[in-house]
Design brief:
With 87 residues, the chain is α+β, with helices and mostly antiparallel strands. The chain has two helices and five strands; from the N terminus they run βββββαα. The protein has a five-stranded antiparallel β-sheet, with no helix packed on it.
Length: 87
């Protein structure tokens, strides 16, 4: 009854968002009032519905992009560059 259901925001139309269930994409889209959803949603956002609440599921792509940006900024650090050139 309170098991987790994962959705993708397919369409936003005014005060409503249309959600597609990830594991049953052939099902009809679910219309949900945006007041019940996290305010940061955009089309393509993944949501989890559990215990009568919706929450954003962090995207693995976004996580990987953040890690890559941190990695780049670490290795492009001018202080680090200076210490590498002195060795």
């Amino acid at each position: 009854m309170f098991e987790r259901i994962d959705y993708t925001v397919k369409n936003i139309d005014g005060d409503y968002a249309y959600l597609q269930q990830i594991d049953q994409p052939e099902e009809e889209l679910k219309c949900v009032a945006r007041a019940l959803l996290p305010p940061e949603i955009v089309e393509g956002t993944r949501l989890a519905y559990e215990m009568l609440e919706y929450e954003i599921v962090p995207s693995l792509d976004l996580y990987c992009k953040n890690i890559l940006c941190e990695w780049r900024s670490y290795f492009q650090n001018p202080v680090l560059e200076k210490s590498r050139s002195n060795t």
